[in-house]
Structures are given as C-alpha cells and as structure tokens.
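Annex B.
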Amino acid sequence: MDMYLTTEDFREMMRVMYTDQQPYTLGEYEGIPLASEVCEIMDELRSFEVRADDCWIVTYPKAGTTWVQEIMSAVMHDGNLEEVNKSHSMLRVPYFEQTFPEEVRRLKNLPTTHRIADEMPSPRVIKSHLPGQLLPPQIWTKKAKIVYVIRNPKDLMVSFFHFEQMLNLKGAGLSFEEYLGYRNSKKASYGSWWDHYLYFWKRRHQPNVLVLRFEDLKRDLRGNVEIISQFLGKALSAKTLDDITEHCSFINMKNNPMTNPDSLLAADEIPGRSFMRKGKSGNWKTHFTVAQNESMDALIKEKLHGTGLTFDH
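Sulfotransferase domain-containing protein: predicted structure tokens.
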C-alpha cells in the first residue's frame, strides 16, 4: 500500500474513520458475519488473482497477526531491516479485506486494498482474517504459502474485548461477560473462532500451510523466526535471524512507530489506549471469573473434542 499512501496519509484516513465514530454494521456472506462493506466486495475478493510466490498471514483476529506479519515481512526482505523500517508494516503488508468508506478513500483517491495488492511486486506478503473457505480459491490451486497462527481462545477473548472497546467496534459497550457470549457465538465478526481454527488445523500437514501457536512464539521467538524463514524458502544467516528476532520482540515492536499500529490508528493520542497492549500469554487469568473459566473450558472441550487441538490451562 505504500505505493499509494505515506504513513501520515494512512494515519489521517484512520483518524477520519474512527474519530467520526462511523457506525459499524455486520452483514453476512455464505453464513459468515463480516463487516457490511466487506460483504459487498466478497465476490471480487474470491476472484482475486493469487500468485504462486505469495505469502499469506491468516489468523482469526487478535491471534498474533501484527507480530507474525512483521516477522514474515522482515524475512521476505532478507533481513534488510533498514529497508523494512522505511514504511509501516500496515502499508508493507496489505490487509486483504480491509475497506475504507468511500468518503475516506476519496481523500487520497485510493482504490480498495485488494486492488492495491494487485499492483504490488512479487513476492507479496498479504494479511487476511477471512475463514479459509472464503479465501480466494486460487490460494489452494496455486499453493501459495500460508502461515496461520492459533492462540489460546481465552487470551484471544481478552485481547479482542479491549480492541473492540478501543476502536468502538461491534463489541464496544458490552461487559466482559456479555462480550464472551457474543464472541463465543457464530454471530460475531468472522464467525466462530473454533471453525476458523479447525479449518487450518485440519490442513496443518499440507506443504503450503504452516500452523504456529502464539504461545510457542512467546516461548521461543528465535526458533520460530527460523521456522518461518525456512517455510518461506529463505536460507538466512544466524546473524540475520538474530537481528529479525530482536526487531520483532514485543518491546521493540511496541516502541517502533513503523511496527506499532498505534502510530497509524491514533490510539496513542488517547491515554490508556493501545493496539499493542500486553502481548502476553495467560493474561486471561486476570479477567475471567471462576465461572467464566469453567464455562470457557467446557466450550473448548466441546468444540475441539477429537481434533487433537488443545491449549495449556
């Protein structure tokens, strides 16, 4: 997207979107709740021209997308961090189904994000939160590389709750108890987290799919940077892998205006608000009551029974 926008351009557009408190509505496409604006272009997204050397970062929102997209971008730049830091991660890695209201796009004569991705040089790193069945079918026929990240759904709930409050999205204004009911239903944006997870979990042995766990990234970032590098076909030196690991540590990404979305979302202008909040595993323990935890455990057991997918308690 940096062929169309500067960091300041993007920031201005996001400020217009979120400070004007424009209403956020959900529609539905093939049974999946999505932002109404996304539903309107889904037929176009499904026919998107995928390239065999594309690298996609796909997640259910708040599972570690920003973190892993930066790792992938740095790897695909062969560890040239000086070049990486010339533009913001959200401009280097287009958010495939992201839509700006027409009045906002008109500010910079901006096409839709997937049309911008059409013009990007190869190899592209593209981000999406779409469920696997709604991604462009060419991803599967051309076997583009997909990195998929799974996060403990309890931490996912906490992160998503704070995110929607921050940006006044669909779940804003709900208590945490109410939010759990909303997000643990099939009525929430992007559908249920378990269906989203299991689509890719079942395909984890396909050669063009790499499934990672957020918790493993926290435990061994350097090892997972190397795994991602090898999966993307890059044979990087130990020094380069070390440098990417340092660049992509939580504290360094939080302090780097070219990796922290706060610098584009204007969240840093409001005390107490931040896109990159804690980046921890197990933070759910400070939010869930005993009853909420027991209910969530029961749901996880029900939805994932027999799949082999489990989470640390």
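DSSP finds 17 helices and six strands in the chain. The chain has one domain: 7-152+189-277. Further annotation is deferred to the next reporting cycle.
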